Amino acid sequence: MNKAEIFELINKNPAFHLATVEGDQPRCRGMFLYRADDDGIVFHTGSMKDVYAQLKRNPKAELCFNDFHSNVQVRVSGKLEEIEDKAYKDEVAAHPTREFVRKWRAAGLVPDFYNEFKVYRLKHAQAVVWTMATNFAPKEYIKL
């Protein structure tokens, strides 16, 4: 797969798993993608979450996307950067796939929205594509 095909797979399969580290213990949880393109892979969380504290201490992470129809897995690793831009946070929250964020915001569940709504971007990352056919082949790293 090339970079464009990887971004296409990621965007078509927005539910992914995020792996972080807490001390010497790996942590993994399901997340929901905002978008992936040449500007990076973007998702969000809340400052009240354990994942936020883990990423503050160590911004290195791995994201795992699966296309179960074609039996392809893409793992992307690198260093996450936090996006502080309020206009960008508003853009993410306004997206049609983020109705749940708007409901939280409107209900006051995120009272200090701009400080509690944490948006991350993974840029300058590397991806590894896995299939059953390539299970025993050497890894090929693809720069994103």
**Helical content (DSSP H or I, runs of 4+):** 25-40%
What strand order characterises the main sheet?
1-2-3-6-5-4
Q: Treating each run of at least 4 consecutive H or I residues as one helix, how many helices?
A: 5
CATH topology, by name, is: Pnp Oxidase, Chain A
Give the tally of structural domains: 1
Indicate the CATH architecture: Roll
Average pLDDT metric: 96
By CATH reckoning, the class would read Mainly Beta
Radius of gyration: 16 Å
Biggest pleated sheet: 6 strands, antiparallel, barrel
Unreliable segments of 5+ consecutive residues: none
User: How much of the sequence is in beta strands?
Assistant: 35-45%
**How does the overall form come out from the CA principal axes?**
globular
Along the chain, the helix and strand elements come as HEEEHEEHHHEEE
CATH superfamily: Electron Transport, Fmn-binding Protein, Chain A
Query: Ends: how far apart?
Result: 12 Å
SS-derived structural category:
alpha+beta
Q: Would you count the extended β strands for me?
A: 8
